Amino acid sequence: MNSKLSNFTFETQEVWTDSATFNHEFLEQEQGLEMNVETLADFIAMELKNHIQLVTRVEAVHPASLQMVAMRLATEVMRICRSSARIQRSGCVRCWQINLAGHRIAKCLKYYNLGSKQARIELHSTLGAIAYRYIAPMRSPVSFQIRAHLLEDFLQSFYIESLTVFRREYQLAENYTPRTTLELAEYMAFTEQYARRRITLKRGGAQQLLVLRAQGFARRQPAETTLDMELAAEPPRDDGELNRCQAMQQVRASMVSEAHDPAEGFLRDRVIQELVDYLKSNGQADCIDYLILKLQDFSAPEIDDMLGLEARQRDYLQQRFKYHVEKFAKAHQWQLVHQWLGADLEDNLGLNEKQWQAFYQQLQPQQKQLLQLKRSNQSEYAIAQALQWTTKQVQRQWFQLLELAWQFRNGTFKPKVS
Fold it and tell me: How far apart are CA 276 and CA 274, in angstroms?
């Protein structure tokens, strides 16, 4: 991680997220049938208990606390599944329950594994990284030190708001406070999730709730106040002038995505996490830094400054980033990405009827056969056997087929002139 980013920790925690580790009894019983909240809570409690005992070697987990946490997580998963039209249409609500529960469990265990002290630091740095640039009035030339003081005040008030919302959403007593390490981890995971909630705006698009709160905080902070704080905190220079930082550039239009359906937010988070893991496994730490800063809507000059890039280095980094994102989207995790985009095979790769017909006509006989085999959920090995290809050829041909579909979907297809 670049040293200029060290003020805020972005490192991805190695936490348990693989649904394959779930207790098989829950997966095998009544396959495809939706679980009720009690069964789902028992499933979550068992997974939490097993992981805690495995990692911390603690033989006993406070049973009442464990069950209450599990029931709250199960209640949230049930709410999402019932309010999401996409999940209800999927034909496998149980699969979504398992995936969403695993996502919530992993978030909770991330903070549990860190311990209460380090978990607080992690949450503070995560939220601080999101809110930092919005925390002072726009075009206000305040220093890092003053902005950090304002950020501290803002986050403390946000934690209070989050706890109030946590109590209200789970119908807890007004004086409820997390007591055990697991309850504290649950509250921290909730606070991060709450901060990232995407709020639909009147002018269109959406924005993270934490950003909207930070912008509101900045509007209530008079420019004169920040200037007075600056004068008090910064020692005067010899020439008597105030040592000011250069004003930050105008905030660009937010790079936001609509997330009316609760399932969309889950898929978006999953795609980002998988992309970060993919980049890490390929030794692309600088691409991870670039991705994180782009997600926080930093401008190109700001990214250059934070990563210490010159023009040629930035161009090279952008080319590598684009290459890996395309490989991730069309080869490594094509199913997840296309599901998120609403462009999976069940939806004709996101093509309308006219586009699909034109696309299908461009395919060679073996490509059409490949498409049919993919539709029937055949493994790469089985497809290779059927088409008498190697698995590498299957992967390469599928990548080319997806690339062609993207061209049709984006209106960039150009027929080859014979």
Answer: 5
